[in-house]
Design a protein that fits this description.
Immunoglobulin-like; 10-stranded antiparallel beta sheet; 5% helix; mainly beta
């Protein structure tokens, strides 16, 4: 009922393919992430995902974000955006959305993640608006997934990794937005993304306890 057809931007995909032509699969680095519901604003949204980073050359890299909405379909709710920082020493570092499988998501730079922090460097959201963006039903529905690709520019692009995109100036540097939650569709949530348990040591998260996941029936 909530399924979303996948949509592509052909022009941006062609540009991306051209850029990746100078990269190699051996440079790819991946980390799995999941929702830290204990530290979300409302304890409602649930998701899982994967971050993949490819260094291209010079100051260029490519970040791919795969996200799945794991919220209980009986409770409903749509994943309508995400924002992130990354652990670069370059004060002028940037992240620009170049392609997405959901055409309603646009580039969302310098968005406020209050109460977690403000601003966040990059991201994608419905209409490019992290807090709004029109009908939440255009977002990622329960049990659905979408993929987002960003061009990363930083003088230290060669030293970044997938884990770098969970790092930054705040306690939580990757946030996911849920809207249209609940039987009346009037609830929302901001949920931090953290590394999957096997990758916790990469970011010094220590002994974060595993939580029980709510799975779609």
């Amino acid at each position: 009922m909530f399924g979303q057809a996948h949509r592509f931007f052909p022009g941006t995909m062609l540009v991306l393919v051209g850029v990746l032509g100078v990269s190699t699969s051996a440079s790819a680095d991946t980390i799995n992430i999941f929702a830290d519901m204990r530290n979300s604003t409302e304890g409602l949204g649930d998701f899982s995902g994967m971050l993949t980073y490819d260094f291209v050359l010079g100051d260029m890299g490519v970040l791919t974000v795969d996200l799945t909405n794991d919220i209980d379909p009986g409770f409903a709710g749509f994943l309508t955006g995400f924002i992130f920082n990354f652990g670069s020493s370059d004060k002028d570092a940037s992240a620009v959305l170049t392609s997405t499988t959901n055409a309603f998501f646009l580039d969302a730079q310098n968005q406020s993640g209050s109460p977690f922090g403000n601003p966040y460097l990059g991201g994608a959201a419905l209409g490019g608006n992290w807090l709004g963006g029109g009908s939440p039903m255009n977002g990622i529905g329960p049990s659905d997934s979408d993929t987002f690709t960003f061009d990363i520019t930083a003088v230290d692009a060669d030293s970044l990794s997938a884990a770098s995109f969970l790092q930054g100036p705040y306690d939580f540097n990757f946030l996911v937005r849920f809207r249209g939650v609940g039987p009346d569709g009037d609830l929302s949530d901001k949920v931090p993304g953290v590394p999957a348990p096997g990758a916790l040591a990469l970011l010094g998260f220590g002994a974060l306890g595993q939580r029980r996941r709510r799975r779609a029936a």
